[in-house]
Amino acid sequence: MSSVADAFLPSRTESRLRPAFRRFPPGAVAVTSASPEPGTIAGKMAGHLAAIASSGDRAAFAELFRYYAPRVKSYLQRLGGDPATAEEVMQEAMVQVWRKAGLFDPAKSSPSTWIFAIARNLRIDALRRDRRPEYDPDDPALVPEPDRPPDTVLEGQQAAARLAEAMAGLTAAERNLLTLTYYEEKSHSMISAELGLPLGTVKSRLRLTFAKLRGALAESFGDRP
Amino acid sequence: MTVRHHIADELLVAYEAGSLSEGENIAVATHLALCPHCRVAARAATAVGGAMLEGAEPIPIRPDALDRVLDRIAAPPVADRPRQRAAVETAGAPPILPEPLRSYVGGDIDRVPWRRLGLKARHYRIPLSDRTTVARLLCIPAGQPVPMHGHRGLELTVVLSGTLVDGHDRLGRGDVEQTDESVEHQPRAGEGEDCICLAVTDAPLRFKGLVARLAQNFLRI
User: Fold this and answer.
1) What are the angstrom distances between the C-alpha of A41 and each of A32, A47, A112, A161?
2) Among candidates B13, B25, B30 on the partner chain, residue whose Cβ is nearest the Cβ of A132
3) DSSP per-residue string spanning A102-114
4) ipTM for the complex shown
5) Rounded to whole angstroms, what are the CA distances from A192 to A180, A189, A198, B2, B183?
6) Rounded to 10 degrees, what is the CA torsion of A42, A43, A49, A55?
7) Are B22 and B133 in contact (CB under 8 A)?
8) Are the C-beta atoms of B201 and B153 separated by less than 8 Å?
């Protein structure tokens, strides 16, 4: 019987990674109106990603690695994976960060959000041996976004700062709900069983918590009609 | 036509957190392909994941972790084989089935190996690697009720063509209907055109917990 570790051979994870970031063309790392504020962690990390993309800057990568590797491993280990597996997937995630650095667009997301998505997809692909079905941004059947003037869109680092502020304002119960969902990959019904709450309550609390956070991002992520 | 029935926020959050089953995942991703509004909301849910990562308690890593990663980076990258996508006729009208659904089916709607389902309705069960959910394409003749409609758990329906009428609701392409066992309803296809939709339901036996899921994946039980 094959071991879980088989799933982490580079060739396998490489070929199984979803093209989640294809919509951001290489070279899109140009400075934009939402460019990182140099003083912040996010700003520094975005600068490192740009340096990796443009000149394969290993010193920049080492700094980025020191900040993110222990966090990515922490995220991966929360699912109940053993430390060796979490370490393996973390290293693979950091290899992907290096290779895909040119696809990172600081105007579209923060470095943490971008790296989270890489780690999440690897976790699903590797730990669960499952495919994470995603839409394809180049699909002719895709209904495109309506045009929005780019200067009204606030994304990337500024959004990350506002989000962090809103997260700090959440109650312990709300934060616990997010931890169970994002870290422990628990379904709504599993959370319901674990907390002894009706399923409907779990859903509505999660919805409210998300609404609070989304409210903090209102300028960048417009409301649905 | 603009999508009017969206994916519930808590489901979008679960999708971006990576906590959905494969079947639910396909339904959400299919809706996202057809709904730019929900794609914006989904980006907010990914940003929450980013903030969670940033707030994660750092834990010790192997002392040689950076060296190992740098070694792997120095090695020539394994060719990034693009995901197998179902071929599509780009010259004609856009496909009815968006990705990722089209690749699961192996082509657009004309390639679906339909099976009969009584009352002239047809269905096709989409093969999944995860057995906690069942995903089906349904083709309901115009004006006919949706067959097989007692449900046990969650049901997610995404309309792909034609319309689905449920009480006063009229759902068109991209619209989603989410129901659970507490909802008694009898949707039917709108007049004038057959309705094609994706229906995802909980499988009769739904395993819970990681260990059960792993066992299920390895043992194919």
Assistant:
1) 18, 10, 10, 10
2) B25
3) GG--TTT--HHHH
4) 0.81
5) 11, 5, 6, 34, 19
6) -160
7) yes
8) yes
- Return all residues near B67 (Cβ < 8 A) that are at least 6 apart: none
CA of B131: which chain A residue's CA is closest? A130
- Give B 94-123 residues with CB within 8 A of chain A: 94-100, 102, 104
- B148-184 residue pLDDT tens: 555 556 789 999 999 999 888 899 999 999 887 666 6
Give contacts of A99 with chain B, Cβ < 8 Å: 73, 77
Query: Three-state SS for A35?
Result: coil
Is the CB of residue B18 less than 8 Å from the CB of residue A180? no
The answer to whether B168 touches B153, Cβ cutoff 8 Å, is no
Distance CA B24, CA B134 (A): 9
Of A90, A141, A183, the CB nearest to B33: A141
Are B146 and B189 spatial neighbours (Cβ–Cβ below 8 Å)?
Answer: yes
> Are the C-beta atoms of residues B105 and B97 closer than 8 Å to each other?
yes
Contacting residues of B for A77, CB less than 8 Å apart: 59
* Cross-chain Cβ contact A79/B210 below 8 Å: yes
Is the CB of residue A131 less than 8 Å from the CB of residue B20? no
Over residues B75-112, the pLDDT tens digits come to 876 665 555 566 655 557 889 999 999 999 999 999 99
User: Is residue A52 classed exposed, middle or buried when 0-12, 13-18 and 19+ CB atoms within 10 A define those classes?
Assistant: buried
